[in-house]
Design goal:
It is a single chain. The protein has a four-stranded parallel β-sheet with strand order 2-1-3-4, covered by helices on one side. The protein contains two helices and four strands. The protein is 16% helix and 20% strand. It is of the alpha/beta class. It has one domain.
Length: 82
Amino acid sequence: MELTYSARKTGFEKGKNYRNPRHFVKPEHGVKSVVVEGDYPAVVKAYEDAKVPVKTVAAPKSKQPAKQAKAETPAEPEAAKE
């Protein structure tokens, strides 16, 4: 079985096996190869130590637009409040 470690929340491919690397404890038995999306050296090292081929790829870019900062309203002068 090929296993992909990814922190993504969407965009999963049907038929692939995914795990969230943030919950990694130890290598799973029966895994023939691993793909690690992003920088998770503990996952990579553990599988390499278990003699399982590991491929590291860049984490996919989020398709969600960045949150825009709320425009600040300038404070009113003290005289205008009276």
